[in-house]
């Protein structure tokens, strides 16, 4: 008689038709659910993190607004302090710019670019550091005062000018310069070029006082 028992290591598969159809149905339902499922908040966050440079329009508006407000407040503070503490000085410097804007601009370039480069060359030697550090501090003060002069100068030009410089010129100038300052890169260049005029007359006045 032959041995009808299954050989060792080989088990025949037992297929139950009802169970097999149920399993196929469950797989079909699961596939359909995954296909039509909407991504959750976590998925959206992951996709947003994987897509750099896709800032929304709201983010851009907030950035421009922040730059505008920051520039306006900063210019208003320096311009307001200038007309409050030294109205006569502000008036004299604005007249110097109006009388010879070309000279004011050239002096501004010398003070803003030429002098810092010269101080850097001095800084190579140990003795030069004694001159460089105080020189950079003086340049920072000159640049700050020059920016204040430029703010008031722009405001005075817009308001039509007058014999006396007041807070109105500082307010209007701060508002006017805050507009280009809100523009990235290009705005910084425009505000720097405007500030060169004020830095020029302040630096020239300091140089003439030192020479005398």
Search tags:
212 residues, 8 helices, disordered N terminus
What would you note in describing this structure?
The chain has 212 residues and is mainly alpha-helical. It has a domain at 69-211. The chain has 8 helices and no strands. The chain has helices at residues 17-36, 41-49, 57-85, 87-99, 101-122, 126-159, 167-181, 186-211. Helix 6 (126-159) packs across helix 8 (186-211). The model is unreliable at 1-19 and 41-54 (pLDDT under 50).
How far the N terminus sits from the C terminus, by CA atoms, comes to 132 Å
Order of helices and strands: HHHHHHHH
Described by strand count, sense and barrel closure, the largest sheet is: none
- Mean of all residue-level pLDDT scores: 80
* Range of helix content: over 70%
Strand content: under 5%
> From the alpha-carbon coordinates, what is the Rg to the nearest angstrom?
36 Å
The count of DSSP E runs of length 2 or more, i.e. the number of strands, is 0
**Protein structure class:** mainly alpha
Which of globular, elongated, flat, extended, rod-shaped describes the shape? globular
Q: Unreliable segments (pLDDT under 50, ≥5 consecutive)? A: 1-19, 41-54
Query: Total number of helical segments?
Result: 8
């Amino acid at each position: 008689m032959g041995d009808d028992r299954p050989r060792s290591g080989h088990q025949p598969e037992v297929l139950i038709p009802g169970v097999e159809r149920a399993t196929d149905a469950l797989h079909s339902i699961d596939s359909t659910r995954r296909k039509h499922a909407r991504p959750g908040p976590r998925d959206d966050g992951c996709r947003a993190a994987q897509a750099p440079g896709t800032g929304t329009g709201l983010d851009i508006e907030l950035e421009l607004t922040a730059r505008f407000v920051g520039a306006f407040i900063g210019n208003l503070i320096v311009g307001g302090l200038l007309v409050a503490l030294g109205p006569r000085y502000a008036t004299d410097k604005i007249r110097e710019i109006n009388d010879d804007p070309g000279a004011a601009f050239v002096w501004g370039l010398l003070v803003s670019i030429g002098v810092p480069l010269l101080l850097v060359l001095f800084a190579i030697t140990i003795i030069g550091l004694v001159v460089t550090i105080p020189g950079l501090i003086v340049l920072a003060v000159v640049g700050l005062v020059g920016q204040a002069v430029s703010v008031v100068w722009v405001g005075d030009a817009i308001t039509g000018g007058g014999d006396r410089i007041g807070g109105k010129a500082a307010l209007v100038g701060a508002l006017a310069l805050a507009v280009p300052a809100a523009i990235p890169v290009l705005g910084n260049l425009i505000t720097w070029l405007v500030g060169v005029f004020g830095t020029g007359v302040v630096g020239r006045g300091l140089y003439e006082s030192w020479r005398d």
